[in-house]
Write a structure and sequence with these properties.
mainly alpha, 196 residues, single chain
Length: 196
C-alpha cells in the first residue's frame, strides 16, 4: 500500500489542478483513477461530486444564455440568479447585467408605447419586466397606466355608434363623425390619463 502512496498523491494533485483550471473531464479521470486505488478516498469523492455540480451549472448557464438570446429575459434572470453561488458566478453576473439592460430598454419602449397611444404594447413590455423583476422601479406604475389606458380605449370603442353595416364608425365618407357626449367624455379621460 505504501508503494501506491506517491501515485495516489499524484492523481490527487493533478486532479485538483485540473479541477481548478476547469478541465473537468481530465480531473474526473484522475479522481476516478485515485478511487480505483483507494475506494474510500473522501477528497476524491467530494471533487467528483463538485465536478457533477459544475457540469449542471454549466448546462444552466447555457440555458440562461439561450433564453436571453431568444428574448425570454424572465427565464434568463431566474437561471442566472441560481448560478451566483457556483463557479460560474462571474458569467452569471455578466448575464444579469445584460438582463438588467434589456429590462431598462423594455421599460423605455413601454413608456414610448404609452406616449404613442399603444397601451397594449406598453403592457406587453411591462409584463416581461415584471416577470423577471416584479420589483423593477417604475414598472408597477407603468403597468397601472397601461391598464387604465386600455380600459379607456375599450370604453371609447363601446360608445362609438354603429354604421349601417353594423360596424363602429358611421360618418359618411369625407365627413367627420359626430362625437357623442359619452365618447367626448371618454376621450377627455384618456387624455388626462396619458398626462399622468
Amino acid at each position: 500500500a505504501s508503494e501506491l502512496l506517491p501515485l495516489k498523491e499524484q492523481y490527487l494533485t493533478e486532479g485538483i489542478d485540473l479541477y481548478k483550471s476547469r478541465q473537468f473531464d481530465q480531473a474526473e479521470q484522475r479522481f476516478t483513477m485515485l478511487l480505483h486505488l483507494d475506494p474510500g478516498h473522501e477528497r476524491a469523492k467530494r471533487y467528483l461530486e463538485a465536478i457533477t455540480q459544475e457540469r449542471v451549472a454549466s448546462e444552466r448557464l447555457q440555458a440562461a444564455r439561450r433564453a436571453f438570446r431568444s428574448g425570454r429575459v424572465g427565464r434568463a434572470h431566474r437561471l442566472a440568479q441560481g448560478l451566483l453561488e457556483t463557479g460560474f458566478r462571474d458569467e452569471a453576473r455578466g448575464l444579469l447585467a445584460d438582463v438588467e439592460a434589456a429590462l431598462a430598454t423594455r421599460l423605455d419602449i413601454a413608456r414610448a408605447a404609452l406616449r404613442d397611444d399603444d397601451p397594449q404594447r406598453a403592457l406587453e413590455m411591462v409584463e416581461v419586466i415584471r416577470e423577471a423583476r416584479p420589483d423593477w422601479p417604475g414598472a408597477a406604475e407603468l403597468q397601472h397606466q397601461a391598464e387604465r389606458a386600455l380600459a379607456t380605449e375599450r370604453a371609447l370603442a363601446a360608445t362609438r355608434p354603429r354604421d349601417a353595416a353594423g360596424g363602429r364608425g358611421g360618418a359618411p365618407q369625407g365627413q367627420e363623425p359626430a362625437t357623442p357626449p359619452a365618447q367626448a367624455a371618454a376621450a377627455a379621460v384618456l387624455s388626462a390619463l396619458q398626462r399622468t
